[in-house]
TrEMBL record:
The lineage of its organism: Bacteria, Pseudomonadati, Pseudomonadota, Gammaproteobacteria, Vibrionales. The gene is dapA. This is 4-hydroxy-tetrahydrodipicolinate synthase. It comes from the Bacteria. InterPro entries: Aldolase_TIM (IPR013785), DapA (IPR005263), DapA-like (IPR002220), Schiff_base-form_aldolases_AS (IPR020625). PROSITE patterns: DHDPS_2. Its EC number is 4.3.3.7. It catalyses: L-aspartate 4-semialdehyde + pyruvate = (2S,4S)-4-hydroxy-2,3,4,5-tetrahydrodipicolinate + H2O + H(+). The record marks T44, Y107 as: Part of a proton relay during catalysis.
C-alpha cells in the first residue's frame, strides 16, 4: 500500500485564494492515469500550514471521493500541538483514507522523549496506519533512528518518511525497525538511491509534474532494473533539485501551471509566487525533463 511513487500533492487555489476543487479533481485523475501508486494529500507540499481545519478535512475527503478507491490516499495530519494532531486523526478516521502522514512538531523543538509521546498519543486515537514524517529542514527537530525504533513497536505506526537525504539512515532504520517497517524517502534527489539501499519508495514533489516518469522509474526499481531507472532519474534530476530553488511548493506550482495541470499559480501567504530570477533555472530543468509549456 505504501510503496513506489507516491505524490506529495499540491493544493490548487482559485485566483481569489479559495481551494479549487475542480482542479483538485483533475489532479487526482491525472495521477491515476499516470500510474502514481498513492496520493499524500495536504502535507507540506499541499500547504497544510495555511489551510483551516475545515479546509484541511474537506480537501482530504474530496481527494478520497475523487479517487473512488482506485488509488490509496494518505492524509497529512501533522501539527506542532499534539492535541491538534490528535484532532486531525480523529476527524479523518472514517474518511476512507489508507493512512495518515504525521510530521514531527515544528517550532517547538521537542526532545526525543517528547517526540515519542507525541506520536504515541496520535497512535492511541488513530484507526488507520501512521507514517512518521521526519523533515528537520522544515521543523527544526530531527527524529532520531532510535526513537523511530521505539515508535515502530506501536502496532499502527507502520512507516517512516525520511526527508533528511541521509542515505546512511536507510540501513540504520532497517536494522532497528525490522524488515516489515516501511521506509519512504522524502527527498527526490536521493529517492532512487534510497530504494536501491532497501527503501520501499518515495513521497515526491517531482511526482506532481512528472508523474508518469516517476511511476515508471519506481516500477523498474521494484524489479531491480536500476540501470533503466537511473536513465529516467538523471533526466529528472534538474527537477529534483530546482523544484526547491525557492521554498516548496513555490516552484512546483509554477511548473504545474506552465504545463497545464492547474489553472492558477496561487499560493497562500506567507508563500509568494516564484521570482522571475528563478524562472530560467526552473525552465532549464523542465526542458531537461521533457516538460512542455502549454500554449496560452
Amino acid at each position: 500500500m505504501f510503496s513506489g511513487s507516491i505524490v506529495a500533492l499540491i493544493t490548487p487555489f482559485k485566483s481569489d485564494g479559495e481551494v479549487d476543487f475542480d482542479n483538485l479533481k483533475r489532479l487526482v485523475e491525472h495521477h491515476i492515469e499516470q500510474g502514481t501508486d498513492a496520493i499524500a494529500a495536504v502535507g507540506t507540499t499541499g500547504e497544510s500550514a495555511t489551510l483551516t481545519v475545515e479546509e484541511h478535512v474537506k480537501v482530504v475527503t474530496k481527494v478520497v471521493e475523487y479517487a473512488e478507491g482506485r488509488i490509496p490516499v494518505v492524509a497529512g495530519t501533522g501539527a506542532n500541538a499534539t492535541h491538534e494532531a490528535v484532532t486531525f486523526s480523529k476527524l479523518l478516521n472514517h474518511s476512507g483514507i489508507a493512512g495518515c502522514l504525521s510530521v514531527t512538531p515544528y517550532y517547538n523543538k521537542p526532545t526525543q522523549e517528547g517526540l515519542y509521546q507525541h506520536f504515541k498519543a496520535i497512535a492511541e486515537v488513530s484507526e488507520v496506519p501512521i507514517i512518521l514524517y521526519n523533515v528537520p529542514g522544515r521543523t527544526g527537530v530531527d527524529l532520531q533512528p532510535e526513537t523511530v525504533a521505539r515508535l515502530a513497536k506501536i502496532d499502527n505506526i507502520v512507516a517512516l518518511k525520511d526527508a533528511t537525504g541521509d542515505l546512511d539512515r536507510v540501513a540504520k532504520h532497517r536494522e532497528l525497525c525490522g524488515e516489515e517497517f516501511i521506509l519512504l524517502s522524502g527527498d527526490d534527489m536521493t529517492g532512487l538511491d534510497f530504494v536501491k539501499l532497501g527503501g520501499n519508495g518515495v513521497i515526491s514533489v517531482t511526482n506532481n509534474v512528472a508523474a508518469g516518469d516517476m511511476a515508471t522509474m519506481f516500477k523498474l526499481a521494484a524489479k531491480g532494473e536500476f540501470e533503466e531507472a537511473e536513465i529516467i532519474n538523471q533526466r529528472l534530476m534538474g527537477l529534483h533539485k530546482d523544484l526547491f530553488v525557492e521554498s516548496s511548493p513555490i516552484p512546483v506550482k509554477w511548473v504545474a501551471q506552465q504545463i497545464g495541470l492547474i489553472d492558477n499559480n496561487v499560493l497562500r501567504l506567507p508563500l509568494t509566487p516564484m521570482s522571475e530570477l528563478c524562472e530560467p533555472v526552473v525552465v532549464k530543468a523542465m526542458q531537461q525533463a521533457g516538460l512542455q509549456k502549454v500554449q496560452s
